[in-house]
Amino acid sequence: MCKISFISLFFFSLLSFFFSIYFIMVDYIIFVEWEVVSFNSLNIIMTMLFDWMSLIFMSFVLMISSLVIFYSDEYMSSDYKINRFIFLVLMFVLSMMLLIISPNLISILLGWDGLGLVSYCLVIYFQNVKSYNAGMLTALSNRIGDVALLLSIAWMLNYGSWSYIFYLEFMKTNFEMMVIGCLVMLAAMTKSAQIPFSSWLPAAMAAPTPVSALVHSSTLVTAGVYLLIRFNILLSFSFLGNLLLLLSGLTMFMSGLGANYEFDLKKIIALSTLSQLGLMMSILSMGYYKLAFFHLLTHAFFKALLFMCAGAIIHNMNNMQDIRLMGGLTQLMPLTSSCFNIANLALCGMPFLAGFYSKDLILEMVSLSYINLFSFLLYFFSTGLTVCYSFRLVYYSMTGDSNFSTLNLLNDESWIMLKSMMSLLVLVILGGSMLSWLIFSSPIVIVLPYYLKLITIFVCLIGGMSGYLISNISLYFYNKAFNNYNFTNFFGSMWFMPYISTYGLINYSLIIGKMMVKGFDQGWSEYFGGQQIYYNLVKNSQFNQMMQNNNLKIYLLSFIFFIIIFTILLFFF
Question: Are 458 and 342 part of one and the same domain?
């Protein structure tokens, strides 16, 4: 099952990639409409849009999912129901394909809901309490976006069709289209886990690592960014764009800070994804949709590789994820460590790796743009934090001596996992330059002052040094200032967002429910309802029983009463 899925997905990925190159070269778009149901004036039409953007994104999703399935053959080998897992992954990829090629809100909703439902099944795959909680948090957070998308479908009835692509350009100033833009932005923010919907993303780490590699690179979380790329006209120079810029900048900053306080290997990489999603959303809100798409593609490569390497490390370390118990992995797992470090450097924006071409371009465009100082500082400070937590992660896991159990049998034996990681490694090294030549028809020349030109590399170097120093030197002053419990708890828990979205919502409703049960169900309604009826029935039945005991005194007494009443009636009438 794994091999068949891998070969077919890989073949379709190559086919889609070659078609995308042809479509870019000849500037070609195919728009297919299929009328599913026609009833009087109501037409339900299935539409598909094949342009360079949808085809190249499809090829990347198929490529990464094929390598993830190949990787899962080894990683999930102890699972007796591995075919069920592969089917779920294939359904996930199919939902993403449907979303990518849809320029119609109805067919987008099918793919969107498919992603939500299958992601729930994958998050609860290991079937324990932690997985169930994470699954519910993921599903319920995403339901907000699903409802927003349903409402936008209802608002699209004003235009007579759900194919938004016909109306965006010349209806962008309409009130209805602005409402639709608000709802679509809300949907995209829930799916891409922007503030205040960020807490589900680290919780979704309860899923198997191959699923995390797929979700965090090219499927679930990128669906929101891709949808907003299609709706980018509504964001440019409007209130929506400014709001999204603020929220995504804060998301980037919050996740970068949180990752520096985290010790769970998978959660650090998850927070890194959140930071990169904030970067994509913020540059998209400024109107540079091609740059956002470019970073979306380059990010997919190194993030999938990071998760695959993390999976190999966790697999070898007997399912242990705490980076404080790692160390010295460069000697024990040299190939995995090499892949991990190259992916980390690509994430930091190391020159001539995949991440450099998109991140450097984004930061230089930010420097060139008309932007306020707060957003500018958020961008560059968050970039520094990215390098900081990456170097911290490398320091804890790769250098020094192993802190694991005395008998450790760590090695690079799993060749199936290594093959898929090596394939992605080639794309991480070459993918950025290849994509920059493909997507941008001419080189983007950005002329900046000398210090602004160097600020990106300067911020990266400062961030890397900070990460190394924070990990290496446990300074007295640092511990005194920053290891304060409240301070660490605030930054390490994503600004208390998981507490707000779980305890904050559930706790008070449960307290109100308890009060309702005590005051109504087991209080007044019980006293005047069930208990009162029961009491009256008991009293009446006791009286009837007494009457039916054939007691002579009762008969004589009733006879006297009858005579008295009869006499009174005769007297009056």
Answer: yes
Q: Which of 312, 482, 340, 514 is nearest to 413 (CA)?
A: 312
Question: Last residue of a domain, which of 489, 515, 546?
Answer: 489
| Cα–Cα distance, 560 to 202 (Å, whole number) | 86
Confirm if 252 and 279 have CB atoms less than 8 A apart: yes
Can you tell me the distance from the alpha carbon of 399 to that of 328, in angstroms, rounded to the nearest whole number?
Answer: 5
Q: What is the pLDDT of residue 45?
A: 79
Within 10 angstroms of residue 459's Cβ, the number of other Cβ atoms is 21
CA gap 464, 442 in Å, rounded: 33
111 closest CA partner among 61, 146, 152, 147 = 146
What pLDDT is attached to residue 277? 92
pLDDT given at position 481:
54
- CA atoms of 199 and 284, how far apart (whole Å): 22
Please tell me the distance from the alpha carbon of residue 387 to that of residue 262, in angstroms, as a whole number.
15
Type of residue numbered 139: A
CA distance 89 to 66: 10
Closest by CA to 14, choosing from 58, 79, 74, is 58
In a domain, residue 293? The reply is: no
At a CB cut-off of 8 Å and minimum separation 6, what does 525 contact? none
Give residue 501's identity as a one-letter amino acid code: S
The torsion defined by the Cα of 33, 35, 36 and 41, in degrees rounded to 10, comes to 140
What burial class does residue 318 get, using C-beta atoms within 10 Å of its C-beta: 0-12 exposed, 13-18 middle, 19+ buried? exposed
Maximal CA-CA distance, the chain: 123
Tokens of residue 244, six digits: 């999204």
- Gyration radius of the chain's alpha carbons: 31
Instruction: Decide if 421 contacts 339 (C-beta within 8 A).
Output: yes
On whether the CB atoms of residues 417 and 312 are closer than 8 A, the answer is: yes
pLDDT at 303: 92
Spatial CA neighbour of 271 closest among 253, 284, 297: 253
Rounded CA-CA distance 411/441 in Å is 45
pTM over 0.70: yes
Using alpha carbons only, what angle is made at residue 182 by residues 180 and 185, rounded to the nearest 5 degrees? 105
Q: What is the pLDDT of residue 475?
A: 45
**DSSP secondary-structure letter at 172?**
T
Task: Kindly state the DSSP code that residue 369 receives in the 8-state scheme.
Answer: S
- Which two three-digit tokens encode residue 47? 């539409």
Residues 340 and 472 in one domain: yes
> What is the β-pairing status of strands 30-39 and 42-50?
antiparallel
Average pLDDT per block of 10 residues along the chain, 573 residues long: 84 91 90 82 81 91 91 84 88 91 88 90 88 88 90 84 80 82 91 87 87 86 90 83 90 89 88 92 90 92 92 86 85 89 91 89 89 89 90 86 71 82 91 88 83 87 84 56 63 77 77 84 76 86 76 76 87 75
Statement to judge: residues 321 and 395 lie in one domain: yes
CA-CA-CA-CA torsion sign (192, 198, 200, 203): positive
Residue span of the structural domain in which 317 resides: 301-489
Both tokens of 426, joined, read 């080639």
State the alpha helices, DSSP H only, in 408-484.
415-439, 450-472, 476-482
Number of domains in the chain: 3
